[in-house]
Amino acid sequence: MYFEVELSIPSGETQIVHTRDISEGGVFLLLGETPRPIIGEVVTVKIHEEAKSHGETFPSGDAVVVRQEEEGIGLAFIELELNDDF
After folding, report:
1. Which residues are paired to 86 by β-bridges?
2. Which domains does the chain have, with CATH numbers?
3. What's the pLDDT at 35?
4. CB-based burial of residue 61 (10 Å sphere; 0-12 exposed, 13-18 middle, 19+ buried)?
5. How far is it, in rounded angstroms, from Cα 28 to Cα 67?
6. SS (H, E, C) the chain
7. What pLDDT digit, counting tens, does each position of 21-79 carry?
8. How wide is the angle at C-alpha 45 spanned by C-alphas 50 and 26, nearest 5°?
9. Are 3 and 56 in contact (CB under 8 A)?
């Protein structure tokens, strides 16, 4: 599944990134050259407003960084909520 999502990292920055994979327990985000949180940091992810306006839903909330790869990061959801309105 390919979604555009907002990623909020501990430094206070919010970035628009894309998903590569989504499962019940987590998500892999494609980050490219954007700043990356480190393994163990807690971040917040939520569906981007444009995708939401098209009726898309996405598991949103807090997640912990569990994997780093060249193209992005793997997150495990801490609290899972399926939200289509924020």
Report:
1. none
2. 4-83 (2.40.10.220)
3. 81
4. middle
5. 9
6. CCCEEEEECCCCCEEEEEEEEECCCEEEEECCCCCCCCCCCEEEEEECHHHHHCCCCEEEEEEEEEEEECCEEEEEECCCEEECCC
7. 888 788 999 998 878 899 999 999 987 666 555 565 666 789 999 999 999 999 999 86
8. 115
9. yes
